[in-house]
Design brief:
The chain is an all-alpha fold and 351 residues long. It has 15 helices and three strands. Strands 1-2-3 form a three-stranded antiparallel beta sheet, covered by helices on one side. A hairpin with a 4-residue loop joins β1 and β2. Bound molecules: zinc ion (2 copies).
Length: 351
């Protein structure tokens, strides 16, 4: 070896960078209880310093409502990618997607353009977000069968209260947590709370329980009931042609109010089911109770004398008997204290 060769810089071949760093993304995020897949993805992106919109490129997806689409369908390739880089299991991924058994018609639709009176793809409870350690969006907030937050007894919101735009964390260009509006930067945790009357909340709870119970029990969800549920705006005269899934949370609340609030005395029972009443017994199981309530709801939503025209102020569908039965069956759980307070309100709204 010559002197020149001795003084030459020593070059040693070491591991490549990609071989020494972890195959996983720097920060992993643990899914929360009943968290929606898109919500977890937005939190994962933020934790790793990537804005929501840019994260679509990292995942090899086209922009737009990329994460909202994944709530409904996630490819095997993408699931493999997430398992490898985000330290997530197949079971955790499956638990964050929307249940396969639920009729797709009950999901709030994905839209590019939003009308003021129209639905948005996702709802939220500001107080849930405000009290979460890690604010996240729940799976049930993507369903038209959910209108209220049981925990906070308030109506879900579907828009930023500052700019009236829907939640759009998938389109966020800046590095902000997903509970800040992508349009104006408003912190959605500060949105005001809207309280609904107890009768409306109980109707929402019953409907959610009927659909949820059948899903959990693995029972097919009655297509007729789904159609009747979707046509509530027409049967209540709130909207001539619109389906319930196409209406804003505010308008859906008005539909529910029409069903259980301030019924016209002369119309009470007009479309009620007959021959399925009778005093409930303590032997009524929850399963048979849900079955009976499903039939009662279906019968009550079936117009017997034609549909009212849009704007017709008559209350032609009345669900007070349905709610009474639900309370008798204890299918609308309440604390003993609130049970006393709501004993009359459940039959008829007092507001
Ligand atoms: Zn809440
Ligand atoms: Zn906003």
């Amino acid at each position: 070896m010559t002197a020149r060769e001795t003084n030459a810089p020593f070059i040693e071949i070491r591991e490549r960078y990609r071989d020494v760093v972890s195959a996983r993304w720097p920060i992993t995020v643990t899914p929360q209880r009943d968290e929606l897949l898109s919500s977890w993805l937005h939190r994962l992106a933020y934790a790793n310093g990537v804005p929501g919109r840019a994260f679509a490129r990292i995942l090899g997806l086209t922009p737009g409502m990329w994460s909202a689409r994944l709530d409904l369908k996630c490819s095997i390739t993408l699931a493999d990618q997430l398992r490898q880089y985000a330290d997530i299991t197949s079971e955790q991924l499956a638990a964050m997607r929307m249940p396969d058994g639920l009729p797709k018609q009950l999901f709030l639709p994905l839209r590019k353009l939003y009308r003021r009176s129209g639905s948005t793809w996702l709802q939220f409870c500001p107080r849930c977000l405000a009290t979460d350690t890690h604010p996240y969006f729940r799976r049930e907030w993507r369903l038209a069968t959910r209108l209220t937050c049981e925990k906070h007894k308030s109506r879900l919101r579907d828009r930023c209260t500052a700019c009236n735009q829907p939640v759009a964390a998938f389109d966020q260009n800046e590095l902000r947590p997903h509970h800040y509006c992508a349009g104006c930067g408003y912190d959605l945790r500060h949105a005001s709370t809207i309280y609904l009357c107890p009768a409306v909340r109980k109707l929402d709870q019953c409907i959610h329980e009927i659909f949820g119970f059948n899903l959990i029990a693995g029972l097919p969800i009655d297509g007729l009931l789904v159609r009747q549920f979707l046509e509530i705006p027409q049967n209540t005269g709130i909207h001539r042609q619109g389906l319930l899934t196409g209406l804003s949370a505010s308008l859906r609340a008005r539909c529910y109010e029409k069903l259980v609030c301030r019924p016209n005395e002369g119309d009470v029972g007009q479309w009620h089911a007959h021959g399925i009443g009778g005093a409930p017994t303590s032997q009524v199981t929850k399963e048979s109770g849900v079955d009976l309530l499903t039939r009662m709801l279906s019968d009550a939503l079936t117009p017997k004398q034609g549909r009212p025209a849009a704007g017709d102020s008559r209350s032609t569908v009345d669900l007070t008997h349905f709610l009474t039965k639900a309370q008798q069956m204890n299918l609308t759980p309440m604390s003993p204290k609130s049970r006393r307070r709501d004993a009359t309100a459940i039959v008829r709204c007092q507001c």
